[in-house]
Amino acid sequence: MQRELLILDGSVLVLRPYFAGVAAPWAAARSSVRKLLGSTSHLAIVIDRTMDTFRRELEPTYKAQRPPAPEELIAHFQRFEEEVQAMGVNLLGSTRYEADDLAATLVRHAIAAKLPVRIQSNDKDLLQLVREDPRVVTEDVTKNLCYDRAGVRERLGVWPEQVVDYLALVGDSADGVRGVDGIGPKTAAALIDHFGSLDTLYQNLDKIAPLPIRGAKNLGEKLAAGREVALWARRLITLVDDVPLGEDPIVRCARA
After folding, report:
1. pTM for the model
2. Is 77 helix (H, G, I), strand (E, B) or coil?
3. Strand pairing category for 136-140 and 145-147
4. What fold does the segment set 160-237 form as a domain?
5. How confident is the model at residue 66 (pLDDT cuts 50, 70, 90)?
6. Please, where in the chain does CATH 3.40.50.1010 lie?
7. Are 44 and 243 in contact, with CB atoms under 8 Å apart?
8. How far apart are CA 112 and CA 67, in angstroms?
C-alpha cells in the first residue's frame, strides 16, 4: 500500500462508462473504485453536485453552454454515491463549490500533513495544483498520462504555478470563460514564460514589441484592451483551497 492521498474525480468515473454505452455506469464506476481500495493509504472522491456554484453567482455565463444532465445520468450519480459511501469511502460534494475546489482543499491539507497526492482526472484546471514537495501529480487515465511539474511544462509551456495566469489569457471554452481576444495558447505560454506572471506582464506591456514572438508589435494593444477580461478570467479559474471540510479531512480519507 502506497502512502499517498488518491483523489478520484467522480464525474469521470461515471461519465466514461455512461458515454461508452455501459448498461450500468454506476456499477462500472463502483468497480473502478474497488480496484483502488488497497493501493493507497488515503482515498477520497470529489463530485460536482450542481453547476450553480459561487462562480455562476459571479458570472452567469459560467458553464452556461452546458446542457442540464439527463435524469437517467443523475440517477446513476446518486446510485454511485450511495454505493461508495456504503464502502466507507470518503466522498465529498458541495452545492456551492466545484469538485476541483474540494480537491484543491484536500491537497492543501495533505501538503500540511506532508502527504503526497495523486489526482485522477482529465480536468486541466487541476494542473495548477501540481508540485514537487510533497509530490502532487494529476493522472489522465483516459490517455494514460501522468503530469508532474515537467509534464505540465511540456503540455502547456508553463509551470504549474503559472497555469492560472496562462488560462486567464487563453480562456477556457469548456467552462465558458473568455480569454483575451487574439491571444492563443502559444503566445500566452511565451508571454507568461518570459514575464513570469500575469501581473508582471501587465506591468510591462511596453516591453513586448521587441520580443521574438509572432505578432509581438500588436500584442501590447490586444493585452491592454483585454486586461479586465484576463483579470476576471483569473478569478474564475483560480481554485478555492479553503472549502470548509470539517475537522481532520485527511484522517477521514485514511484507509488503514
Report:
1. 0.95
2. helix
3. antiparallel
4. DNA polymerase; domain 1 (1.10.150)
5. confident
6. 2-158+239-253
7. no
8. 38
